[in-house]
Amino acid sequence: MKLGRLNHVGVAVPDMADAIAYYRDVMGAALITAPFDMPEQGVKVAFVNTPGEHDTAGTQIELIEPLGETSPIAGFIAKNPAGGQHHLCYEVEDIEAAREWFTAQGKRILGPTRIGAHGTPIFFLHPKDMLGQLTEIMETPREQH
């Protein structure tokens, strides 16, 4: 199994409009995707695109806002009212091979493989097994958001 590039850093936010304004007005981000709901995951998502070397896509910031009180992000926001870094997401070529490899390494996988915000399969690894960091593993997307 070979770990790919850091695709995005997930940042939980209490208010999507405020977070977009911050990245646009304070951080000078030029490309921010329109927010979209992912009811199956209980979140609203928008991506802040950062430039990479030689006009390639850089690492994205994934803004995630809870959709209702039962959202998995709602508990994070309750503990961190201003929001904050939620997870790191790395790409892999083959999601099932990665799942098998992490399982063989004794890493705990949180839930089933499912489709993420980029439209590709993802799964999460328990923070206690990943140096204290919630880690998302995603299959490399064919097209970037």
Fold and architecture overview:
The protein has a single domain (6-139), classed as 2,3-Dihydroxybiphenyl 1,2-Dioxygenase, domain 1. The mean pLDDT is 92. It has three helices and nine strands. Strands 1, 2, 3, 4, 5, 6, 7, 8 and 9 form a nine-stranded mixed beta sheet that branches. The chain has 145 residues and is of the alpha+beta class. A hairpin with a 4-residue loop joins strand 3 and strand 4. The chain has helices spanning 16-26, 72-79, 95-104, and strands at residues 6-12, 31-32, 36-38, 43-51, 57-66, 84-92, 109-115, 121-125, 135-139.
Sequence stretches where pLDDT stays below 50 over 5 or more residues:
none
Structural class: alpha+beta
Number of strands: 9
Task: Tell me the series of helices and strands, N- to C-terminal.
Answer: EHEEEEHEHEEE
Helix content: 10-25%
Gap from first CA to last CA = 25 Å
Classified in CATH, the superfamily is: 2,3-Dihydroxybiphenyl 1,2-Dioxygenase, domain 1
Mean pLDDT metric = 92
Number of helical stretches of at least 4 residues = 3
Second CATH tier, the architecture: Roll
Total separate domains:
1
The radius of gyration computed from the alpha-carbon positions, rounded to a whole number of angstroms, is 15 Å
* Shape type: globular
CATH class: Alpha Beta
Could you say what the CATH topology is called?
Answer: 2,3-Dihydroxybiphenyl 1,2-Dioxygenase, domain 1
Which percent range describes the beta-strand content?
A: 35-45%
Task: Summarize the biggest pleated sheet.
Answer: 9 strands, mixed
